[in-house]
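Changelog excerpt

This revision adds worked examples to the README so contributors can see how folded entries look when concatenated. The first example is reproduced verbatim below.
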Amino acid sequence: MASRSNSYSNFSESSSYDYDEQPPPDRADPLSPGHRRNSHNGLLGFTFGSKKMRKKKPFCQERAIVGLALFVIAFVSMNWWMLNRIQNSGRAPEFDFRFLEANSSTLSIREELVRLGKGKKPQKTIYARMLAKAAHALAEGQRKPEPKDLWAEPYFVASSWKPCAEQRDWQPSEGTNGYIIVTANGGINQQRVAVCNIVAVARLLNATLVLPKFLYSSVWKDVSQFGDIYQEEHFIDYLKPDIRIVRELPQELQSLDLEAIGSLVTDADVVKEAKPGFYKKYILPILHKNRVVHFLGFGNRLASDPLPLQVQRLRCRCNFHALKFVPKIEETGALLIRRMRQNVTRLGPLDRHLVGPFSKSMMKGERNRGAKVARYLALHLRFEIDMVAHSLCEYGGGEEERNELEAYREIHFPALVELKRTKKLPSPAALKAEGLCPLMPEETVLMLAALGFNRQTRIYLAGAHIYGGKSRLASLTTLYPNLVTKENLLSSSEIEPFKNFSSQLAALDFIVCTAADVFAMTDSGSQFSSLISGFRVYYGGGKMATIRPNKRRLADIFVKNNTIDWRTFEQRVRKAVRQTKRVFSRPVGRSVYRYPRCNECMCNT
């Protein structure tokens, strides 16, 4: 029995339970001469020795031992099977999106990678032990209710904040000091912030704003302009009581060489987080002299504080009210939300603000009062190669991964490469401990499982081009098979109008993530996640739960992945995430787009 007991002890190191087996008491006295001389315990309960001493144990005890042996064999087999699925993504099962009727599809991770010409070895992970425990927890979780506050904001005080950025307490600006042209850079999120900032600058300088333009980016490779993403007429009309907006410069100014006359202002000419005084001191004189200023590559160039209350409110008004997606994006966004909700006819708190009149289409069909509410979680997994390479962290891929990321830095981040050569930077382990590394997909799935989301949870994955491809996502898709993207939910004809337009595809992600019952981010510094969480706060009425993990605290938990038991892991993760859900007013100097709970944007009732 000692050898069997040892096998249990070894097995418990990779299973979700520990079994302490006690051997059954011997029938004969182990100290008796007869026992020492001529007896041995048999596996099935017989005592071998002389005919006189040969006895059979009770039948019920024999049956119990056989049953225990069968149970252990089945349990070991199940553990091996689950662990093998997670460790070897090359043999990961096909995941079938059965809840999508018209657009269901079955994808094989290995076949998809080969088809894309990106077939790689199965992704190794340092979290195999914890993923096996998570798999068992999810399997058991089918019989248990989810935590009470999992799908809700836990603090009632959140509902006391109401949107009020639409309130105005000033006269319209005549824009008599000249014209402002802006060409915003970056992706859709940076462009959105730039537009709201330039609207505030135009008011500060009493200038007329020319309808914003977007700078073509070699990274995003999207030729979309303002009118391809946002409704121009609504933008102009809604902000008419605040600033004057025109579609183009007057004829007499269009032929000017703005660079030659000193009216071209780049990001390098404007200090980061510039205060209102900077614009009045340096930009206003140019307007007075040349009647026009062109901000080229304008981005985050307006400070959060100090700013007059009404100007700050104007920024909120622009972000939450003036920027409406074009009907093409609204319609497809409504379609995606409806499919994520399994065509259940209900409206969420943000639907009409996100998809406008198309929210009515989400209420079509017969209502089934007995139908279970279809909820879904949206996940922004910030794990693209640019983020991974710039972080200087390591993700378990060994020398091959280090060489690949270093080659990417040489091309895209030469300044960072030079900094590495000339200065001693923190080690990957130190960066991880400080919470400066993006969460890996393996860490993300462990977090979701620990929080209590069951295996059947429908998950919408925003973004694309995850570093490592579907091989890297194997743990996530194995433990949560109902995970989809917009590419899965839409037919080829439905997604065709958005192909090759990354900003428009990102707008669809924005809509579905913002409308989700729960939104989980893996990087709180992401502009995309910040805008979504702010939108959910502004219009959510305190009902839209958002998961903002504290990566420093999670790193302290994950570092114990080889020793920590699942119950302790659950408790610590839930505590770390719960603390980030607390309701507070916008801290001084922080973005109103991310933290709209302030007097400038919302009213505390």
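The second example, added in the same revision:
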Amino acid sequence: MLGNKVPRQKPCPHCKSTSALPETSTIHYEKFWLYRHCSSVQQRDRQAQKAGQLFSGLLAMNVVFLGSAFISSMIFNQVAITLSDVWILLSILKVLSLCWIIYYLLGTSRQPHAVLYRDSHAGTIWIRGSVLLFGSFSILLNVFQIGYSTILIQCKSKLDIVFPSIEIIFIFIQAFFLWHHSKDCIQVQHNFTRCGLMLTIATNLLLWILAVTNDTIHLEIDSQLREVEQRFGDNETTLCTCPNTTICKVFQKGYILLYPFSSEYCLVCCSVLYVMWKNVGRRISHHHVPHIKPKFKLQGVVFGPLLGAAAVVIGICVFMMYQIQATGSAPSHQVFVMYYSYYVVLLPLMSVSAVAGTIIHALEKRELDTVKNPTRSLDVILLMGAALGQIGMSYFSIVALVATDPTKLLNSLILSYSVLLIFQSITQNVFIIDGLHRQPLVAAAEATHAGHAGQHVVASELPGEEETSTRSKQEHTQMSASKEEETKEEQNREGHSQRRVSMLELGQEIRKASLSYIHSYSHLNWKRRALREISFFLVLCNIILWVMPTFGAHPVFENGLEKSFYGYSTWFAIVNFGLPLGVFYRMHSVGGLLEVYVTA
């Protein structure tokens, strides 16, 4: 009996088959020590990861609450807490964040086995490009602020120069850090890295809150100068005025023009840093890494760029006419009618395009991408969260207009604009989120086939280079066989023939490129063509809708309708919260639509 029980309990490890032992066909792995040990290690790693994320999140929450309390105290009681106090706190936070970033660059990232995995979805080229673009404008903004404060040094404190100087260093080092390390999945010093990332996120978030509160100054300059002076609460504002010099006016206008880029830079940095925080300690499987990444190519689109370019050109004209009226004097009634009419025409086109794209997504038989992706999850959260800014303002406008008099022309246009803006934001979010959760079509063989077919079409339809060279040789031979006394005429005729040959070759190259593009366009099926057309059209529309409020077009405050209904302070707070979120939503939508275009 003992001889029969031993092989059943402990089968030979070198045996290739256990079919002869029916009792051992079901192996209970949980009884093995190695399995239990590995499972406990994995469970402890998950618990440590959750604990590290919780601790770093609590750190960021406390820092944000402390900074928000300082900024709120400055707004409500400028005597006890001044702007200088807020600047000192933010300078301390920026110095601490810079110390951690430098330590990460020189220490953590250079350790052995520190960066074994890199998230291919994080830090896309347009996100990192946005960091560099907005960071450059933010640096230029601080340069203008330093120059403006230097001219008015007799009525400015030294902090007006020190704070933007620290800001320039912080922006430059942070942009360098995000450009090179936004894809890192760091595998060492997890908790310290999480705390450093959360501290940097909290610092950028507080800088955004301060930028939002200070943005009221620039809006009030155009509308009610006296209330700006009352907001400061002292007589220093009236005495510390810019002298009538060109350089001072340049610094002042440049600072006001570039001011919105600072808040945009802070929001973009927060989103990239959050993805890095989620990727700390993350291990990416090899089958999750795409072997061939889809690249952005301007192929398969014809009508989208044309319609989008028309929307951009018309929008620029409307924006320039509005700005001329707004800077010269109070905007007239006709300017507001023109501005809102442009939106009332454009927003339905964008909504219909987004609905059509969503229907095409439903018709496509494409698998969903269910792989864990922190970047995609953050994109969805940012799209839904940032859209709440302009949706909230729209609902406030709807209530105010319906309660007063919606029958007037301007009131009806603003009411239509508010309703259409809500519908457009919702439909565009559905289209982008649906497109982000679909598997990309990487058709390498299809592209190769298209290239060969294009070459075949070009070779069959276009005259070859041999025919052109033979024709030129024959012409040259005929010209050289003429009489010697007509050499000048022959040279002129030869030059004319060479120009004719060069023009012919140029026409052939243009025709070859156009035929290749048309073939690549016709090679895609109608669903992919339609998705690319819609995505490109929406990209251009969102760009112009980002440009107009970013560079100073704020009719939601300047028309005076909602302001008279809710009161100056209440409506100003609503606009000051919703407008920056709306601007960020347009910019973030461009990145999401480019992702949809590339994967279509």
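Reviewer comment on example two: Residues 132 and 379 are 19 Å apart (CA to CA). The chain has two domains: 33-289, 296-450+519-600.
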